[in-house]
Amino acid sequence: MEGDSVTLHNGRTYLNDDWIQWWFINKDNLIAEINIPESRFSEYDDGRFRDRLKLDYRTGSLTITNITTQHTGEYELEYNTWSRPSFYLNVYTRLPVPVISGNSSNCSSSSSSSSSYCSLLCSVVNVGDVTLSWYKGNSLLSSISVSDLSISLSLPLEVEYQDKNSYSCVINNPIRNQTTHLDITQLCHTCSDLVKL
Q1: Where does a domain end: 89, 120, 149?
Q2: Residue range 32-45, pLDDT digits in tens
Q3: What per-residue confidence (pLDDT) applies to 111?
Q4: What is the mean pLDDT of the chain?
Q5: What is the pLDDT of residues 58-114, one digit of tens each?
Q6: What is the rounded distance in angstroms from the CA atom of residue 48 to the CA atom of residue 26?
Q7: CB 33 within 8 A of CB 21
Q8: Among residues of the chain, what percentage have pLDDT more than 90?
Q9: Helix, strand, or coil here: 20?
Q10: Are residues 77 and 112 both part of a single domain?
């Protein structure tokens, strides 16, 4: 998640007479290196990292602190010219809390005086690579997913005012989720309540 720290390990517990180079995205973007024979220990800022890189001079592992989505991508390790494992880092934005709004509707003369339906909408803004879902208890009712960045999502649901089941709206990505529970009494009103209003 954005704001976290991540460490890319090279599998070594200590370095001898070695050199290690860390590359981001491509071969023109060297971001850190250790060259023990030449006594060179360096982190390079290409504009993306802004003092976020920290090399472990004992093992050669690389830590990126306070990560953002611009650090998503492939990282390549060169170890003594022959070992070149790659790491793909995917950074997710912080999840907002879903907002549930609603209006009562379908109050007609043909309806019984005690019946009323509420149209609900669960919404989130400025999200990417997430799924937004409605749940009735633990059962999934509906969901919508998006892979784009910085988009707004909304998902409708209609419930009856007298419904005593628990409903919740959940936004999640592969790492975390945020949940808002529905309070029917706050968002939905009976037909008689609407007449009084």
Answers
A1: 89
A2: 999 888 888 999 98
A3: 44
A4: 84
A5: 888 999 999 998 899 999 988 886 767 789 998 988 899 999 998 755 554 444 444
A6: 14
A7: yes
A8: 44
A9: strand
A10: no
Does some domain include residue 1? Answer: no
Q: Are 5 and 63 in contact (CB under 8 A)?
A: yes
Cβ partners under 8 Å of residue 195, min gap 6: none
End of a domain among 89, 121, 150? 89
Residues 129, 187 within the same domain: yes
Phi, psi angles (nearest 5°) of residue 49: -95, -30
- Domain containing 160: what range? 99-196
Phi, psi of 117 (to 5 degrees): -115, 145
Q: Which two tokens stand for residue 134?
A: 């409605």
Q: Are residues 163 and 136 in the same domain?
A: yes
Whether residues 110 and 146 fall in one domain: yes
What pLDDT digit, counting tens, does each position of 105-160 carry?
555 444 444 457 789 999 999 888 899 999 999 999 999 998 876 678 999 999 98
pLDDT at 163: 83
Same domain, residue pair 144 and 70: no
Q: Output the 3-class SS for 17-58.
A: CCEEEEEECCCCCEEEEEECCCCEEEECCCCCCCCCEEECCC
How far is Cα of residue 189 from the mean position of the Cα atoms in its chain? 34
Q: Are the beta carbons of 191 and 113 closer than 8 angstroms?
A: yes
- Reported pTM: 0.71
State the total domains in the chain.
2
Same domain for 81 and 21, yes or no, is yes
The alpha carbon of residue 144 and the mean position of all alpha carbons in its chain are separated, in whole angstroms, by 15
